[in-house]
Amino acid sequence: MITCDSLVYQPFRPAGGELACDGVSIQSIVERAGTPTYIYSARAIREAYRDIDDAFASYPHAIHYALKANSTLAIARLLQSLGSRADANSGGEIAVAERAGFAPRDIVFTGVGKTREELEYAITRGLGTINAESAGELDRIAAIAQAHGRVARVALRVNPDIDARSHPNISTGLKTNKFGVPLQDARAVYQARRDVAALQFVGVHIHIGSQITTVDPLRRAAESLVSLALQLRDEGFALEHVDLGGGLGIAYEGRPIIQPTDYAGAVIPELRRVGLPVVLEPGRAVVGRAGALIGRIVDTKCFPDGRKFAVLDAGMTELMRPALYGSFHRIEPVVPRTGGDTAWDVVGPICESSDVFGRDRALPPLQVDDLVAILDTGAYGSAMSSNYNRHLLPAEVLVDDGKWSVIRRRQTLDDVLALES
Ligand SMILES: Cc1ncc(COP(=O)(O)O)c(C=O)c1O
Asked: In angstroms, what CA-CA distances link 380 with 85, 283, 288, 317?
């Protein structure tokens, strides 16, 4: 069931003795763009998107790219140009999706804790589906839709109490998590609102977590959701789709993990039981591999016990995942120096002990001013960056067909202070 990750396109590879993105010198990019900077490969995004699309080719499907993974406008536009639809998690992401060219009807709106303003916007824009998180939210949607003389297209997100076997902080389908409505309560929630004229129940929704690396939880989630869809259809609900959410992981550590074909192979037999089109909301699997964060070493130090630190100009403010989840990212010098590998702790400059990108990493000699790439950071990297310690949001660059361009300029202190008096 597990396909080798070496088949997946690797955008960051050595070329001429230094690390390049799709063959374009990273050193030459950051000479002009500065550091820290995120660099993305358009080719890697296209290939990852197509891998998912192709894997589901035998079954009616719609890919709604999960903008939360990376909603930089140019990335969103690229996905839109590939035929993707969008999954937005906030009013801000809906607005970005529309700016990127996604039609309102091609946007699903998910997420815990949607505000009245966000719901009003989503309803009046006529979004494809609002995935409601609770009975109360459905009622608020109905009231707002009625007040505007609209009918809202809705689905209910169910919580199946399935362990995604991912990191606890990114598991969302357990009964201890805040997400969705317990699966056993879902039918009653639909039935109680069957006659609400302002609601059109178009689907059912599930999302059990992110960075899922085995098929079993995904198959079981699909099985639960399809069973619910069958019951609802028997009871007369004219459903149009089942939405399996996102969650497909990537091989951060290089170990073989499931690929889109494994995922499709596991869930399509379940989907065939109901025959409804499937909505997929992948984020990480589309953009994760495509990005690297490039930082420059600003200090090195060696403690008496022999522990060596390389301190970068990028930290948890630019890439929060290691500090937040203890997540692993490969770290590589952009221009490796000759000499044997030794153990390095690669850390950021932020005043937090958790501001560590990797401990005891076997790396060649490192010196101040060397460039370092933190790989597989296209998803939940820039999107989670912050101004803590008054760090400025990093620049972002897209490499496409041998050329590169800045798709987000580096934030300036004036940008930040413009909000303050
Ligand atoms: C509802 C929903 N859909 C899709 C996603 C995207 O998940 P992933 O990036 O793991 O594919 C998330 C992320 O947590 C989510 O909460």
From this structure: 19, 9, 8, 12
CA–CA dist 235, 224 (Å, integer): 17
Tokens of 89: 């998690």
* Centroid of ligand 1 to alpha carbon of 13 (angstroms): 28
380 CA closest ligand 1 atom index: 9
Report phi then psi at 212, rounded to 5.
Answer: -90, 130
Task: Report the residue among 64, 68, 79, 327 best suited for mutation to probe ligand 1: largest number of ligand atoms under 8 A from its CB.
Answer: 68
Out of 4, 21, 302, 351, the active site residue is 351
CA-nearest residue, atom 5 of ligand 1? 246
Q: Who lines ligand 1 at CB under 6 A?
A: 66, 68-69, 87, 110, 207, 210, 245-248, 281-285, 379
Q: Largest alpha-carbon pair distance within the chain?
A: 73
Q: Annotated catalytic, 351?
A: yes
Task: State how far the alpha carbon of 318 is from the alpha carbons of 36, 267, 347, 352, in Å.
Answer: 8, 35, 12, 14
Dist CA 156 CA 241 (whole Å): 12
pLDDT digits (tens, 9 = 90+) for 206-236: 999 999 999 999 999 999 999 999 999 999 9
Supply 171's token pair: 């598991």
Instruction: Give the H or E element holding residue 186.
Output: helix 183-192
List, in sequence order, every residue forming a beta bridge with 65; answer none if it has no partner: 86
Please spell the DSSP secondary structure of 262-328, one letter per residue: HHHHHHHHHHHTT---EEE--SHHHHGGGEEEEEEEEEEEE-TTS-EEEEES--TTT--HHHHH---
Ligand 1 atom closest to 210 (CA)? 10
**pLDDT, tens digit (0-9, with 9 covering 90-100), for 309-349:** 999 999 999 999 999 989 999 999 999 999 999 999 999 99
Please say whether the beta carbons of 331 and 375 come within 8 A. Answer: yes
Nearest CA to ligand 1 atom 4: 246
Rounded to the nearest angstrom, the distance between the alpha carbon of 349 and the centre of ligand 1 is 30
C-alpha to C-alpha distance for 153 and 91, rounded to whole angstroms = 17
